[in-house]
């Protein structure tokens, strides 16, 4: 990858965050704060220098996000795309399709989880990559299966064996070629991004990048975990 090559980062931030309970009634989940900064700010600060524009897919309480960040943040241009219907992560990315057609590759991540700059840079080394994290228990999670070369072979939803393994961490490097494929519809009616990327596996290599840092924010107690972790 050329050192002067510029990339875009897409942050999926349209969801309601209902599991955050009263915390997300008046505040979109990506604007909840950890150590005085919003989850979105943490992500944008961590972006590699090669990322010069951020596309944020908004929906729930979108005006609060646009008012908070404006059109520039951390020296990077901010572009907003609206997702009117919450139809899953692949559908969310498809809303930004027109802004990505001429890109070499781009970085996609969730609007509420916390990632490291190192992992972002590692994902961008590959045209196609999925950030994965090891866990002691895969039960009811999405198991990521990859071969000895680190190429992803399968993603098994709602895995039923209580064993250790790797799960998807919600960050991806992708090229515009993905838009030539059909979005994969999940049993709940939403369209899944990791499953749609997996549909390309016979045509491209999809690299499993093991996360050095990932804090998934799904419930109020996760904010406390993040506060404690970032205080170290």
Key traits:
single chain, 232 residues, alpha/beta, Spore Coat Polysaccharide Biosynthesis Protein SpsA, Chain A, eight-stranded mixed beta sheet, two-stranded antiparallel sheet, 6 helices
Tell me about this structure:
There is one protein chain. With 232 residues, the chain is an alpha/beta fold. The protein has a single domain, classed as Spore Coat Polysaccharide Biosynthesis Protein SpsA, Chain A, CATH 3.90.550. Helices cover 20% and strands 31% of the residues. The strands form 5 sheets. It has an 8-stranded mixed β-sheet. A two-stranded antiparallel ribbon has the order 2-3. A hairpin with a 2-residue loop joins strand 2 and strand 3. The protein starts with 6 loop residues before the first strand and ends with a helix.
Fold blueprint:
Layout: E1 7-13, E2 33-34, E3 37-38, H1 39-46, E4 51-58, H2 62-69, E5 72-73, E6 76-82, H3 89-94, E7 106-110, E8 114-115, H4 117-123, E9 129-135, E10 143-146, E11 152-156, E12 165-174, E13 184-185, E14 191-192, H5 193-198, E15 207-210, E16 214-215, H6 220-230
Parallel strand pairs: 1-4, 1-7, 4-6, 9-15
Antiparallel strand pairs: 2-3, 5-6, 7-12, 8-16, 9-12, 10-11, 13-14
């Amino acid at each position: 990858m050329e050192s002067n090559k510029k990339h875009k980062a897409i942050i999926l931030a349209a969801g309601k965050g209902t599991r955050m309970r009263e915390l997300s009634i008046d505040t979109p989940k990506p604007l909840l704060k950890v150590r005085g900064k919003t989850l979105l700010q943490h992500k944008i600060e961590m972006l590699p220098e090669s990322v010069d524009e951020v596309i944020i897919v908004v929906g729930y309480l979108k005006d609060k996000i646009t008012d908070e960040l404006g059109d520039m943040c951390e020296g990077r241009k901010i572009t907003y795309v609206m997702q009117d219907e919450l139809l899953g992560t692949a559908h969310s990315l498809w809303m930004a399709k027109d802004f990505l057609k001429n890109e070499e590759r781009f970085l996609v991540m969730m609007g509420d989880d916390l990632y490291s700059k190192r992992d972002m840079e590692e994902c961008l080394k590959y045209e196609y990559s999925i950030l994965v994290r090891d866990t002691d228990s895969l039960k009811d999670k999405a198991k990521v299966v990859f071969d000895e070369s680190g190429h992803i072979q399968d993603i098994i939803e709602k895995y039923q064996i209580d064993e250790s393994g790797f799960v998807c961490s919600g960050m991806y490097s992708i090229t515009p070629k993905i838009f030539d494929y059909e979005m994969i519809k999940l049993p709940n009616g939403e369209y899944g991004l990791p499953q749609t990327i997996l549909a390309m596996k016979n045509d491209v290599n999809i690299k499993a990048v093991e996360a050095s840092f990932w804090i998934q924010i799904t419930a109020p107690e996760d904010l406390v975990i993040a506060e404690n972790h970032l205080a170290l």
